[in-house]
Amino acid sequence: MGSVGLRPFVVYGPGRDQGMTSTPTVAILAAVAGVPYRISFGGPVLFNFAADAATAFVNASRLSCEGAHLFNIPGTPAAIPELIAAVDAVVPGAADILTHSDDVLPAPSVVDDRNTELLFGTAGVTRLVDGVAQTVEVFRAGLRSGLLEPPPSAAAVAR
To answer: Cα–Cα distance between 157 and 155 in angstroms, integer?
Structure first.
């Protein structure tokens, strides 16, 4: 019986709102809502847009293979300040209200991604700024409709 394992890294985007590495997504929501927010880590990471990670899992489930295989989900290597700059490019002023910890995650920011085509076909992965822009649009609509609420500000969390 064949098996396929996938290794995602820092998944961000709509639907990613739990766990330590979800704080980049919460930061995007905070920027859209105009609320100060602190990302819980810093340093270089490998970002996987949530829709790309979902595509990788669906496509991996359709692979026909023998033996056990493990694939890294390819993404965009970037440091947290680069994420904040991408958010600021879509939500001007975000860089003034988003901060981050200096704690570095014990995870690689660059991985072997030779199997990108197996998981994504020729589409490849979503660029960080494009994933942020798509996330911003979903969050703007969610805030307008009342389906989403702004996250607590960093000051409120510190109390």
So the answer is: 5
CATH superfamily of 3-158: NAD(P)-binding Rossmann-like Domain (3.40.50.720)
Q: Are 94 and 31 in contact (CB under 8 A)?
A: yes
Tokens of 72: 């890294």
Q: What is the distance of C-alpha 95 from the center of its chain? A: 17
Is residue 98 a contact partner of residue 67, using CB atoms and an 8 Å limit? no
Q: What is the token pair recorded at 22? A: 């979800």
CA 114 to chain centre: 21
How far apart, in whole angstroms, are the C-alpha atoms of residue 23 and residue 41?
A: 8
93-125 tens-digit pLDDT? 999 999 999 998 877 677 776 666 666 665 678
Q: How far apart are CA 19 and CA 91, in angstroms?
A: 24
* pTM metric for this prediction: 0.88
Q: Per-residue pLDDT tens for 25-63?
A: 999 999 999 999 999 999 999 999 999 999 888 888 887
